[in-house]
Amino acid sequence: MLELLFGSTLVNWGPPILAYVQQNPWRVFSAILVAVLLIDWMVNDRSSGSCDGGLDFGSGDGDGGGD
């Protein structure tokens, strides 16, 4: 079934990719970590709710802090 979907790509590229991952686990881990952080940064625009680009802790209404 996978061969119908991907052709022979999985068969041709699978063993070299597996060998590279086994030889360089920290390099693969760091590349995956960088990719995840970049995707998170692109998807979640953290500075959209704040004018100074910092953390947004809300407006302070409803925090129960006196008048």
Describe this structure in words.
There is one protein chain. The protein is mostly helical. The protein has a domain at 15-47. Helices cover 58% and strands 0% of the residues. It has three helices and no strands. The longest helix is centred in the middle third of the chain and has 19 residues, at 25-43. It starts with a helix and ends in a 24-residue tail after the last helix.
Concise structural overview:
Residues 51-67 have a biased composition (Gly residues). The chain is mainly alpha-helical and 67 residues long. The protein is built from 3 helices and no strands.
Break the fold down into its secondary structure elements and pairings.
Elements: H1 2-6, H2 9-23, H3 25-43
Uncertain stretches: none
Helix count equals 3
Q: What's the main sheet like?
A: none
Order of SSEs, N→C?
HHH
Structural class: mainly alpha
> Radius of gyration, Cα only, in angstroms?
23 Å
Helical residues, percent = 55-70%
Strand content: under 5%
Summed over residues and divided by their number, the pLDDT gives a mean of 75
Count of extended strands: 0
Give the distance, in angstroms, between the N- and C-terminal Cα atoms: 67 Å
Q: What would the principal axes of the Cα set say about the shape? A: elongated
